[in-house]
Design goal:
The chain has 92 residues and is of the alpha+beta class. It has three helices and five strands; from the N terminus they run ααβββββα. It has a single domain, classed as Irregular (HU Protein, Chain A), CATH 4.10.520.10.
């Protein structure tokens, strides 16, 4: 499912115009993005949680040349699936 599929599903289930559904989905995603940028954790019961993981810098290698390369510290979003979703997907 992609963003446009989600917008269409919301419009059908709530009987709202596509423009309104698009605005709602955009507000939700923008709010989630803003929260992660601010360093906050997002938890959606039954689905899972989103957190930002921080990774230290390290010395890596360029696979093509074999030369050492300094990799800068970074922050990446991480999703941890919730128990309910895991059980529904696995069928347990």
């Amino acid at each position: 499912m992609n963003k446009s599929d989600l917008i269409n599903a919301l419009a059908l289930k709530t009987d709202t115009p596509l423009k309104t559904s698009e605005a709602i989905i955009s507000i939700v995603f923008d709010s989630m993005t803003d929260a992660l940028v601010a360093g906050d954790r997002i938890e959606i019961r039954g689905l899972g949680s989103f957190v930002i993981k921080e990774y230290d810098g390290y010395t890596g290698r360029n696979p093509k040349s074999g030369l050492e390369v300094a990799v800068k510290p970074k922050k990446l979003p991480f999703f941890k699936v919730g128990k309910d979703l895991k059980e529904r997907v696995c069928g347990a």
